[in-house]
Request: fold
Amino acid sequence: MPTDVRYVGETVPGDAFVVGYGLHVGERYRNLPFVAEYLPGDPGVITSASNSPDTTGWIAEAIYVPWLNTKLSLQYTAYSKFNGGGTNYDGVGRNASGNNTWYALIWFAY
Reply:
């Protein structure tokens, strides 16, 4: 029965088997933050859209110690390359900078 498809999120080529975003093989690779092709000939290897695992970025951190045994910290992680690419690193249009994160910490020791 023909179906009218209006929206396509991603097209998987040929007989490729993909993992990530909840898709898994034997309960592995389920939590990947991208969709990658699973290579059955080498079960420990998955690929990104660029077939490169390279990631480049930097981390900046500000620390303030107002009293003994108390620390306040703010950290920013920025990526210029993620899984081998700066733009469209996963084949569905996401950029490396979309993974940039802020981290705040309040630490008490007694």
The two ends are 69 Å apart (CA to CA). The chain has a mean pLDDT of 79. The longest strand covers residues 70-81.
